[in-house]
Specification:
Layout (H helix, E strand, L loop, with lengths): L6 E12 L3 E2 L5 E2 L7 E4 L1 H15 L16 H11 L17 H13 L1 H6 E3 L8 E3 L2 E3 L2 E6 L3 E7 L5 H6 L6 E19 L1 H7 L3 H13 L11 E12 L8 H5 L2 E5 L12 E5 L8 E6 L2
Helix pairs in contact: 1-7, 2-3
């Protein structure tokens, strides 16, 4: 069933002694706003975790395959679309880019039907073998930490080396030194939007939306690593509009969810150091607040 409502949502998550989103241009240091010191997590990072969760939960089977994933060759997926719509004749030996035509539109629809992330987030699929472009109904902002963060750098030691030459050079000591970056604690907030109009274009359904909410709540539970041992979703607050065009501006709704340090806490080190205030009284007419369980 197609969506008939607009949604705006607030995602609250935290990290303890980890690196939520390293910056490859800064030696993998946690991303931050250089002027304010607030931590940042990109929308791309959050979408990747949603993709990973959906692929794991639904077994990478249509209509829940994942288009953008590790080691994917995107043009190979485009080939599948043309085979799927019975237009192998559009595929030449050198796989030249195709322009326009009903086949491209049919291929785009095939991609939307089979790949969850295409019909959710959209995709540019016009490289190489042309499957068109899709504007996704679900969009996320960068997440920003409530307070400034402090990035810490740690020396780590591996009691092994990679080659015999390294072992001989160390006289049998066999140590490999490395560096690791973490933040002691950070509580982050991201905003998101769901458009019913764009959902109709990609056939993003009510079932897809429920799976997306589930992914936001559980994605960190299945993304553990040495750098992200303790990341958790702490709140998912969804504003549902009766009207497809919306009943209130998104920014006026986002301001109703606030996280502040508790009185007397100078240096937060856990979620318990914050108060989360939800102003759910006197909501604009036609807006309902759905507090998803986390």
């Amino acid at each position: 069933m197609s969506l008939t409502n607009r949604y705006d949502f607030v995602l609250l998550f935290d990290v303890k002694d980890g690196n939520p989103n390293g910056d490859p241009d800064a030696g993998n240091l946690p991303r931050l706003d250089a002027e304010t010191g607030h931590g940042l997590v990109t929308d791309v990072c959050l979408k990747r975790k949603v993709r990973n969760f959906v692929g794991m939960a639904r077994g990478e089977q249509p209509p829940y395959e994942i288009y953008v994933k590790e080691k994917a060759v995107l043009n190979n997926q485009h080939k599948r679309a043309y085979v799927g719509i019975g237009r192998e004749d559009m595929l030449t030996g050198d796989d030249k880019k195709r322009k326009g035509g009903d086949a491209v539109d049919d291929a785009r629809k095939w991609m939307c039907r089979n790949f969850f992330d295409v019909r959710t987030f959209g995709a540019v699929m016009s490289t190489g073998i042309n499957c068109g472009q899709v504007r996704g109904p679900v969009q996320l902002t960068f997440a920003r930490s409530i307070d400034p963060i402090i990035a810490q750098e740690h020396s780590i030691t591996r009691m092994a080396v990679a080659t015999e030459a390294e072992a001989e050079k160390q006289g049998g000591d066999n140590r490999t030194m490395g560096r690791k970056h973490t933040i002691p604690y950070g509580l982050y907030m991201a905003h998101g939007f769901v458009s019913s109009f764009l959902a109709k274009q990609t056939d993003f359904s009510e079932d897809d939306l429920e799976l997306f909410w589930q992914a936001l709540i559980q994605m960190f539970e299945h993304d553990r690593s040495a750098a992200r041992g303790e990341m958790s979703t702490r709140g998912l607050y969804v504003f549902k509009h009766d009207l497809e065009l919306g009943n209130a501006p998104a920014h006026s709704l986002f301001g109703r969810i606030r996280a502040t340090r508790k009185e007397g806490v100078d240096v937060p080190r856990s979620f318990a150091d914050y108060d989360v205030m939800v102003q759910d009284a006197d909501l604009p007419a036609g807006v309902t607040l759905l507090n998803k369980s986390c």
